[in-house]
Amino acid sequence: MLEAPASSARCGIDTVEIARIERLLRETPPEDLLKLFSADELRESGDGPGRAASLAARFAAKEACLKLFPRETALNIVTAADFAVARDAYGAPHVTCSPAAEAVLNRHRVKSIALSLSHDRTSASAVALADPARIEVPLAGKIIFHLLPIRRRVVLENLRRVFGETAPEDEIRRIAQAHYAHLWRLVGEFIAFSWLSPAERAARARVENPDTIIAAHARGKGVIVVTGHFGNFEVSTAAAIASFPQAQGKFYFVRRPFKPRWLDAVIVRRFRRAGFGVLPKSGSLDAILERLAAGDIVVFPFDQHAGPKDGVRVEFFDHSAGTFRSVALIAQASGATVLPGASWRGPDGKHVLRFEEPLELVERDDVGEEIRANTRLFNAALERMILRHPEQWWWVHRRWKEWPAKKSGTARRS
Question: Looking at the structure, do residues 115 and 21 belong to the same domain, yes or no?
Answer without folding.
Answer: yes
